[in-house]
Amino acid sequence: MIETDINDIYGRPLVFPIYQTGSYEIPGGEKFRYSREYNPTVENLNNVIKRLEHGDLANSFSSGMGAITTTLLSILRPGDEAVTHIDTFARSYHFFSEFLRSFGIKTRISRPGTENILEEINKRTKLVFIETLSNPVLRVYDIDEISKACSENGALLICDSTFATPYNLKTLDHGADVVIHSASKFLSGHNDVIAGVAAGSYDLIKRIDDTRRSLGTSMDPNTAFLVERGIKTLDLRMEKINENAMKIARFLNESPRVSDVIYPGLESHPDHGIASRLLRGYSGVILFKLKKDFNDFIDKLSNIKAANTLGGLNTIVSNPYTMSHRSLNNDELKILGIDKDYVRLSAGIENPENIIEELNTAIS
């Protein structure tokens, strides 16, 4: 019996379809047996991410934290030493400071800034984890210098580049061994999925992929379809988001009702020189300090929403003190330099004059 190609029956779709299946008939292909391990829709996304990040391979996960934890657990073993910085997403920080330490993995956590993390890297370091643009204080880490230090000391460099995005920074081209994204944010860009991705060298991603299949941090095909759809407009969205964020940051910086504005595109930013050298654009996240209560501020907003996320089509604000970084203690928050009056804004693609007008009303 001659097998008929399904595409000869149904035609070849312009959009890669969702393979909504838990398993596959045997005998079948060598790779596709069970969807927790491999799924064609997810593999299609992996190929998109691989090309986007200039990696040898890519892998997809059920969340951004799933991508981070699976990557770290595939590399680190009890007795190893890892280095990171305190100004990361709070869950990433706790994974290093509590979870990994409980398994006998020594973690050295630096204060914010490239110079501080460089001081922590030595011959005992197995792995360095950085956010290329940190959450929430938006320090820009000099990946060129850090990757050089890692190479000299035999350490691997893992970069969470969620805030920077592949549009603004090709992390692997600057010496990172693995780049990770919370694809829930700018990559998918519609605030309708929870997802994570990682890309890097062939050998490392194969190790990470094997750990993913054991831990079960796999992405489902519907999510993969939505992330891949969002990536199709990534360049268009990020170009507009970069432009909008710059205009909003300048407005906030000139407002007498705002006491502090942190944005890499402003010359006042401590890492503006590094950002100008590394980044194509300064991305869409701004941190600023109000001279009024946050709840009173959001009560005056209408189209801008308060939510514990970022990177979508619409402008969103959050309060790191009570939201994304609420699990940090007062000493840790003091090191970050943030308090209850700071607002993290994620610029959307709306008319920037409308965003500025609404912000001006709310902070007045």
Automatic annotation (TrEMBL):
UniProt KW keywords: Lyase, Pyridoxal phosphate
Keyword Membrane attributed: no
Entry GO CC: cytoplasm
Cofactor: pyridoxal 5'-phosphate
Biological process terms in GO annotation: transsulfuration
One example GO MF annotation: cysteine-S-conjugate beta-lyase activity
InterPro entries cross-referenced by the UniProt entry: Cys/Met-Metab_PyrdxlP-dep_enz, PyrdxlP-dep_Trfase, PyrdxlP-dep_Trfase_major, PyrdxlP-dep_Trfase_small
Pfam families referenced in this protein's UniProt entry, alphabetically: Cys_Met_Meta_PP
Record's keyword annotation contains Lyase: yes
Name of the protein: Cystathionine beta-lyase
Species per Swiss-Prot/TrEMBL record: Picrophilus torridus (strain ATCC 700027 / DSM 9790 / JCM 10055 / NBRC 100828 / KAW 2/3)
